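ZP: hey, is the adenosine monophosphate complex queued? I don't see it on the tracker
AM: it wasn't, my bad. submitting now with these inputs:
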Amino acid sequence: MAGGLRPAGFLRGVKLAMKVTVLTTETQAKPTGFAQFDLPAVLLRAVATAGYSEPKPIQRDAIPPQLAGRDLLGIAQTGSGKTAAFALPILAKLIGLGAKRRPKAAHALVLAPTRELAVQIEEAFRTLAKGAHISTALVLGGVSRSSQVKKIAPGVDVLIATPGRLHDLVQEGDAILSDVKWLVLDEADRMLDMGFIHQVKRLAKATSRDRQTMLFSATMPPEIAELAAGLLKEPVRVEVAPQGTTVAEIDQSVILARVKQKRKLLAEMLADETMRSVMVFARTKHGADRVAKDLARDGFEAAVIHGNKSQNARQAALNGFREGKSRVLVATDIAARGIDVPGISHVINFDLPDEAESYVHRIGRTGRNGASGTAVTLCAPDEAQKLKAVEKVIRRKLPVARDLTGEPDPQPVAGERPHQDRREGRRSDERPQRTRREHGSKADQLRQNRGPAPHGRPAKPQHATRPAAAEAASGEGFAGLPGPARFGQGEPRQGRPAKPDGRPAQGFKGKRWGGRRSRAA
Ligand code: AMP
């Protein structure tokens, strides 16, 4: 309890509430900030140390029902403050619990779709549990399994996990979930997209029957509504932004550009120094690599994260971006999901996402904590349907800032060496060599055309006179990107269970839950 008197909220609904409420309002100002919640003093101190003065709307609405023991359905995006909204009530309960930890068991379990999000959640728990003697552990794919097994061997208070690896550990008898009294499914819609839903259901089933369950999702597709109906008991529904709408502070626009124009356009945009911290989204892992490589050739260093990168490489890229060492981070949807980097000024959708709802997640990287943000989407003619789908989800038309489709293609550079694709062993079906020649070394081209650019950035590019119809006639699709991701190459897709490290998910038939050790990590 924060102060000497019980907060009015605690007494609301009891018989003497009227009398006592009058007393508290007359003699003591209603607590504000986090003191309005019935949280242990140690948590209030940690919240203050973290610099949170006022609860965010999701926290204001979601913390009291959770403290009262209710299940919760939270419709909220990353950046809304949802982590503290579930972490604080769980920590409050754990502090009051005083129960002994059993070996390999956890009292609270948070499931998250990506490793990066899981790492962030653990950091938030540690920050908020400062001084409270609460133990946390992370279970993630793509990193050493043995250290995780060791960490949870004595038992932990809060286990934060991606479903694939935890599923393995439970199946192999290295983690026990029957003591889990608090279960959080974070970014449930993304877990669905990534094909984790089956594993999530199995994991939830292995937890305590009388658990309290919190499910957070940015969107509510029918499968998530069904999952919620199966897992939550009479939940309180808290929605911080209407479903499918995007954060009001984000200035959103579209640039219509043919595929071949996108690279140059991106370089042009990044030449603007006011773009302090930029996330560029690509549709596929190969596409992300290609964008980063092209950027490097155009004189812009960019960090890259996607599912084919090792966990360490992803974390290093993310840290570099967070610390401002890299101004640009190129990412795929799944790798970027849930990433919380404060101060991202711009999101550029180099191409449109396959799933319209990913747009909401992408642009939600900017405009955080009330800051302004800008999201620009580059849309090629063959992406028009995807743009329409996005506009349907966000329930509004995106303004077209520029239409370059009638302009000629970027100028090929005379005497330029053929591109290195062959030497790099690129698949011949990914991108015709001709296209690379057309793009050329942008920095050289710009220098030749314009002389050195200020601040070492490329000068405004010029366009050649190739007729716009030529590209359409060539029948070329995504010049800068590979064709549609194939199984095993692209990010995991809906309906195809996959593990975070890209391995195909294990079938359940014939496998005993918690049975013999079936597979080395
Ligand atoms: P989340 O949506 O949980 O990823 O939180 C987004 C960001 O908001 C994180 O950097 C949190 O540290 C921060 N945050 C959460 N709650 C508050 C608060 N009440 N006041 C200020 N910042 C907060």
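AM: back. The CA atoms of residues 68 and 478 lie 53 Å apart.
ZP: great, adding it to the tracker
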